[in-house]
Amino acid sequence: MKLKVKRLHPQAKLPFQATPGASGLDLYACLPDGDVVLGQDPVRVPAGVALEIPEGYDVQVRPRSGLSLRGVGVAFGTIDSDYRGEILVTMWVFGSRAEHRVQHGDRIAQLVVTPLVRLPVVEVEELSASERGAGGHGSTGT
């Protein structure tokens, strides 16, 4: 199996695994015509690449922890195996940060490839009991 990547712009950088132990591939901004300034409203930042994902696999767009620490948000997303368009990353700033400038070639997100499990959906009258039950946010401690 291979993750096929098509460069849509000559200056686009291919996703890259920075270290052998990295679970994700770095994804780069493709902005040859100029920077994008992020504010609190979401902006789609182009990566300049498209993917061909093998059937039975899932590719997730995930935030980079270094950007999150600096108040730059990235929307978690899923790229379906039948999508062939450009990868766009939804980004914004949060907290006390007013803006963030994204430049061509900046690492903006990571791609994580995982096997996809397909399960049949079955309607039932009752679910089995568990120790947690219906406890939601904060129910397992702080």
Provide a short characterization of the protein structure:
The chain has 142 residues and is mainly beta. The protein contains one helix and ten strands.
How would you characterize this protein structure?
By secondary structure, this protein is mainly beta. It has one domain (4-115): Deoxyuridine triphosphatase (dUTPase) (Deoxyuridine 5'-Triphosphate Nucleotidohydrolase, Chain A). The chain contains one helix and ten strands; from the N terminus they run βββββαβββββ. The protein has one helix at residues 65-69; strands at residues 4-7, 25-28, 36-38, 43-52, 57-62, 72-74, 77-79, 86-93, 100-102, 107-115.
Order of helices and strands: EEEEEHEEEEE
- The computed structural class is mainly beta
Strand order of the largest sheet: 1-4-8-6
How many structural domains in the coordinates?
A: 1
For this structure, the CATH topology is: Deoxyuridine 5'-Triphosphate Nucleotidohydrolase, Chain A
* Helix proportion range: under 10%
General form: globular
In the CATH scheme, the class would be: Mainly Beta
Instruction: Give the strand tally.
Output: 10
* Overall residue-averaged pLDDT value: 94
Distance between the termini: 41 Å
CATH superfamily: Deoxyuridine triphosphatase (dUTPase)
Strand content: 35-45%
| Uncertain spans | none
| Largest β sheet strand count, sense and barrel closure | 4 strands, antiparallel
Supply the CATH architecture.
Distorted Sandwich
Rg from C-alpha positions? 18 Å
* Helix count from the secondary structure assignment: 1
